[in-house]
């Protein structure tokens, strides 16, 4: 039976969505792993999104809290808002109370990836503060660490990402994930899927 890895994200302008696509590719590259990408519900009205200049949502299925239980491992992605996850992702986690009550997600591996506007905008605090959600569900946080190798230490260009997970800098929205950031995302997906596969095999 295939190991199911879900990539669950929220993206206003598409930056986190780009990372999610690469993470899915990385997870799918592991033999015996079936990766699926999902987005969480939008909480802002279309009128507000229009005024913000947000593009239409991609053709990606919207996940419900109950569907999380089907996965063997889950990677959550979101942009930062003042150093923490965006309200849309927080609202989704707030809707998982029933799963928390039954501890339905306990023992499942989980990872995090993210987007920030600036270099000091939360490439560490965003995932760090998000870990509380995983902890209350009893999930096993799987950081990517420095397994990406020397490229994580690169100083020749601006790049997002950290030991917590893949990341990108969106700046004013005009900057898109760089080649290195996309490689980091692919690596995280592949690395995480390998861990999820090992955990399921030893269960």
Give a written overview of the molecule.
The protein is an alpha/beta fold. The protein has one domain (3-201): 3-Layer(aba) Sandwich (Rossmann fold), CATH 3.40.50. It has 6 helices and 7 strands. Strands 1, 2, 3, 4, 5, 6 and 7 form a 7-stranded mixed beta sheet that branches. The radius of gyration is 16 Å and the shape is globular. The two termini are 13 Å apart. The relative contact order is 0.21. The model has no long low-confidence stretch (mean pLDDT 95).
Q: Topology of this protein?
A:
Layout: E1 3-9, H1 15-28, E2 33-39, H2 46-52, E3 73-81, E4 84-85, H3 87-94, H4 97-102, E5 109-116, H5 125-136, E6 140-141, E7 167-169, H6 179-202
Parallel strand pairs: 1-2, 1-3, 3-5, 5-6, 5-7
Antiparallel strand pairs: 3-4
Helix pairs in contact: 1-6
Using only C-alpha atoms, the radius of gyration works out to: 16 Å
Shape: globular
Query: In CATH's first tier, which class applies?
Result: Alpha Beta
Poorly predicted runs of 5 or more residues:
none
Assembly context of the chains: single chain
What's the number of domains?
Answer: 1
The N- to C-terminal Cα distance equals 13 Å
Strand content: 15-25%
């Amino acid at each position: 039976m295939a190991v199911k890895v879900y990539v669950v994200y929220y993206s206003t302008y598409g930056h986190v969505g780009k990372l999610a696509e690469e993470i899915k590719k990385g997870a799918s590259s592991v033999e015996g792993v079936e990766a699926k990408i999902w987005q969480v519900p939008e909480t802002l009205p279309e009128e507000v999104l229009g005024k913000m200049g947000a593009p239409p949502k991609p053709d990606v299925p919207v996940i419900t809290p109950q569907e999380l239980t089907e996965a063997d491992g889950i990677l959550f992605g979101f942009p930062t808002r003042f150093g923490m996850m965006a309200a849309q992702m927080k609202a989704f986690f707030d809707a998982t109370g029933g799963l928390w009550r039954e501890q339905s997600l306990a023992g499942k591996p989980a990872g995090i990836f993210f987007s920030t506007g600036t270099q000091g905008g939360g490439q560490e605090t965003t995932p760090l503060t998000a870990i509380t959600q995983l902890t209350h569900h009893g999930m096993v946080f799987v950081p990517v660490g420095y397994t990406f190798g020397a490229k994580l230490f690169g100083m020749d260009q601006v790049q997002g990402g950290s030991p917590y997970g893949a990341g990108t800098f969106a700046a004013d929205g005009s900057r898109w994930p760089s080649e290195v950031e996309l490689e980091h995302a692919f690596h995280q997906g592949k690395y995480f899927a390998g861990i999820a596969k090992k955990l399921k095999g030893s269960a």
